[in-house]
Amino acid sequence: MKENKYDNEVFFKKYSCFPRSVKGLNAAGEWHELQKMLPSFSGKRVLDLGCGFGWHCIYAAEQGAASVTGVDISKRMLAEASKRTKHQNITYICNSIEDYEYPDKAFDVTISSLAFHYIEQFDSICAKVNKCLVDNGIFVFSVEHPIFTAHGKQDWVYDENSNPLHWPVDNYFEQGKRATTFLGEEVIKYHRTLDTYVNSLLNAGFSITGLVEPKPAEGLLHSVPGMADELRRPMMLLVLAQKINRCKA
Predict the structure, then answer these.
(1) Helix crossing, 55-62 with 75-84: angle to 10°?
(2) pTM for this one?
């Protein structure tokens, strides 16, 4: 059964208090880098996988997208997204990323923010995204960095005064399920190596045109508690890929 912590009332309430949940993209430490990787949305059909509160869907619509489809497993997430959405060309679908029916060549751009580390089979998602994109279509996504996910605890090692000493990295090559604690709840995530991310995309028929390990935005380093420590290890990985046009000239 696919996990859906975000429809747990207590968990969702805590998540809703996050700066990025309240203030949107400008409160997301990686947004200043992810925004640079995004293609022009003008006239494009856009798919957002794990759309959450709909911030990226709204951004795409504001940038002139012809249509935007946001997919998320959480009814609570989509309810909040609908409240924030004024654009008539945004459609939200309640479904898991794995079970969504990816229509053939229906989209020009697929985006996803911090969702794929909840998915067990990344390679199958790459194949499905490739199927739903037009030739030369764009696939942009962010995930938790393999350095961040390798050790299941996902927390610093502290000294006797609760100061963070270092970030533990262990069992890096042992890919698969990790049980971690997030917002006081056990959450299941999936660790995979960097080469698994890269080769899954290549094997699915993508070329990789961008790879970024983002540092937090300068303006957030001292305004968001704990953000300065994000300079000590990579938390996220951003990837820009393009579907290869296999048609012969």
Answers:
(1) 30
(2) 0.92
